Amino acid sequence: MTTVEKFLNGIAREKPIRFSPQDIARFTHNYSKRLGSGGFGVVYKGELPNGTVPVAVKVLTGSLNKTVEEQFMAEVGTIGRTYHVNLVRLYGFCFHATVRALVYEYMENGSLDKYLFHKDRKIEWGTLHKIAIGTAKGIRYLHEECQQMIIHYDIKPANILLDADFSPKVADFGLAKLLSRRNTHVSITRGRGTPGYAAPEMWMPAPVTYKCDVYSFGMLLFEIVGRRRHFDESLGQSQRWFPRWVWEKFETAQLGGVASVCGIREEDREKAERMCKVALWCVQYQPEERPPMSKVVKMLEGEMEIAPPLNPFQHLLTSGAAIANWSDSGTGSTATAPAWHESPNEDSMPPLRMHEIELVSSS
After folding, report:
1. Separation between Cα atoms, residue 227 and residue 220, nearest integer Å
2. pLDDT of 150-189, one tens digit each?
């Protein structure tokens, strides 16, 4: 019995349904409507047997090597065990010698990147603000609310899908890892994530935490505010790297200028400035200086004051700054890092010692 078959037998008691190759052909009307393709394979539109539930069927192509096995098991083993309004739903899968496929809910408006980076796609600022909050809630659920913590590792606009009402759902769990609540650190054997969105520690030979997703979400926030890629070589030197430019505007008390340049209306500028400040906290170089997603949600929704961010790019000039204690009530007149570097379930988990850090297996 193969590694994947053992894994699928173990997950048979969970939510996703195992479909046959005949089921997949029937759902997709013999693969008649192609939605897109990539290195992983091809996505087809289909519908479940009752004819009323549209689905997107990702059919994996190529040989079944170790990487493909790991990604297949990551998808089924993470998103297949969860349900949240801001996570794409996995209805089931097919693992057969002739067909390997994943059956998801169909998302009518595609991925967020098309609305941020393509000028022909229009989307209201208020909708973008809701997308930011909904995405944050989806990641909060992965980190803090589901039975086992899930680190996504690849948060970016292309992996945020939008339904008919433009409600966001986090998708593509091919790199995700399940962690027990006692293990907040995970060792990775190769680079994960997408350059530009992946946290700095992802490229270092040391264990990483769920805070790598917080960093990626910060980069996503910058792109939502700017409706542009976080790095655009076609722009002038000062605005080329958007996060650094936002920091410079914040540092000189000109954050309102960011909203103006980005074409955000006056009535939405307070929300935009709030998003910029949250993004600056999320992309802090030191993982422990980044807030957990529960606090990110509160800050975005205006339920929590935002302390003045530290310079996320200080490490480019000198060594890091000291970390101070966080106070929920105080914002302070100087920029010090709040003590939100605890585990997201700190009430139930004792402090983790270095010798307790374990390699988390995907099987």
Report:
1. 10
2. 999 999 999 999 999 999 999 998 888 877 555 555 555 4
Q: 133 by DSSP, 3-state: which?
A: helix
3 state SS of 179: strand
Contacts with 291 (C-beta within 8 Å, 6 or more apart), sequence order: 214, 278, 281, 282, 299, 338, 340
Residue 293 sits at the vertex; the CA angle it makes with 292 and 298, to the nearest 5 degrees, is 105
Q: Which residues are annotated as a binding site?
A: 58
* Prediction pTM value: 0.83
The separation between the first and the last C-alpha atoms of the chain, rounded to the nearest angstrom, is 14
| Cβ atoms within 10 Å of 256's Cβ, excluding its own | 16
CATH number of 3-105: 3.30.200.20
Cβ atoms 44, 26 nearer than 8 A = no
| CA nearest neighbour of 334 among 342, 324, 344 | 324
- Positions at the binding site for ATP: 58
- Domain boundaries 113-316, corresponding CATH code: 1.10.510.10
Residue 55 in contact with residue 46, Cβ under 8 Å? yes
Backbone phi and psi for residue 14, each to the nearest 5 degrees, phi listed first: -85, -170
Residues marked as catalytic: 154
Q: Break the chain into its structural domains and give their ranges.
A: 3-105, 113-316
Q: How far apart, in whole angstroms, are the C-alpha atoms of residue 129 and residue 119? A: 18
